[in-house]
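**Discrete fold encoding**
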Amino acid sequence: MTNNDTIAKRIIEMRAERGMSQSELAAASEVAPAQISRYESGKNIPRANVLSKIAKALNVPYAYLAYGIMPDFSNSVKVNEDGVATLSLDLDLDEDTLEKAKAMARLKGMTLDEYIRWIVKFGLIGPH
């Protein structure tokens, strides 16, 4: 798991690994080239919806660009014959975190299971 210092560094790193110019990233993410430059220089921080577009263009999880978390699901994902992926997770939550998750689920009108699925999806692909 990599945890770089800033969103700017992670965008630069992923763009360089893919051999993309700022202009190419801008076109792929539908974000203005000047904004990509500002994000990479650290002058601006992208909003969640913009960061989601950049993550998609770079083909990396939203959580990596936003938080420096690169999940490894290689042993947890199973794809059925219809191409539907199932992710198995073992969560080790302390009591306080579990209670907060339950409270957030209630606020959103979700079951705890639905809320945790939503969190995982949000972390992988960002807001949609």
